[in-house]
Amino acid sequence: MIVIVDYGVGNLTSIQNMLKKGGTTSLISGKEADILSASKILLPGMGHFDNCMQRFNASGLRSTIEKKVFTDKTPLLGICVGLQMFMESSEEGNEAGLGWMAGKTVRFKPEQMNHSLKIPHMGWQEVKAVKQSALWKGLEGSRFYFAHSFYVQPASVSDTLLMADYGYTIAVGLEKDNILGVQFHPEKSHRFGMQMLQNFANNY
């Protein structure tokens, strides 16, 4: 069973509905027992980085999820701020990140961008994979929906899975062992988002 972690943040029902459209059953839960029995975990996130980290830490689920991820090697997919939380820190706030991957979350740099580009970055953008991954099966040349002012900057190039161009090239997807994350919103990305969620459900 895929468990969508409920710690009070994110488009939980929208994610569940997109999975359902693709034929996958999932459970929205903030209960330790459900997470312990999960075959895969979805970690959503939306809004301010500090708020997401504070709520996640206050949920009491962090140690359980870290056991699942690092000891049991359960596949986990972070979405939007759920991805940004993987990093050690964020320029959006003062809270420490999860530190699951080395690196930080940084804000867009307007001085390096075309002045016609707005921040936050909102709308559809083509995404390209920079390494092979089961998450990206059948998705070459696809477009996804974004809504963000910050992006991840991993310390190791090998952790980067997906890139997009918005003023300059940024990482929009990471994959390290059983930990995956995307900056865009698959639940808002129509058939492309459904395909990506099904790839996660079926290929990990």
SSE order and pairing:
Elements: E1 2-5, H1 12-21, E2 26-29, H2 32-36, E3 40-43, H3 49-58, H4 62-71, E4 76-79, H5 81-84, E5 89-90, E6 103-107, E7 121-126, E8 128-129, E9 143-148, E10 150-154, E11 160-166, E12 168-176, E13 179-182, H6 190-203
Parallel strand pairs: 1-2, 1-3, 3-4, 4-13, 5-6
Antiparallel strand pairs: 6-10, 7-9, 8-11, 11-12, 12-13
Question: Can you give a write-up of this model?
Answer:
The structure is a single chain. The mean pLDDT is 96. The chain starts with a strand and ends with a helix. A hairpin with a 1-residue loop joins strand 11 (160-166) and strand 12 (168-176). The protein has six helices and 13 strands. It has an eight-stranded mixed β-sheet with strand order 2-1-3-4-13-12-11-8. It is an alpha/beta fold and 204 residues long. It is 26% helix and 30% strand.
Using the CA coordinates, give the radius of gyration.
16 Å
| Overall strand count | 13
State the order of secondary-structure elements, H for helix, E for strand: EHEHEHHEHEEEEEEEEEH
Principal-axis shape equals globular
Largest sheet, in brief, is:
8 strands, mixed
Classify the beta-strand content into a percent band. Answer: 25-35%
Q: What is the straight-line distance between the termini? A: 12 Å
Structural class by helix and strand composition: alpha/beta
Kindly report the average pLDDT value. Answer: 96
Low-confidence stretches: none
Lateral arrangement of strands in the main beta sheet: 2-1-3-4-13-12-11-8
Count of DSSP H/I helices: 6
The helicity comes to 25-40%
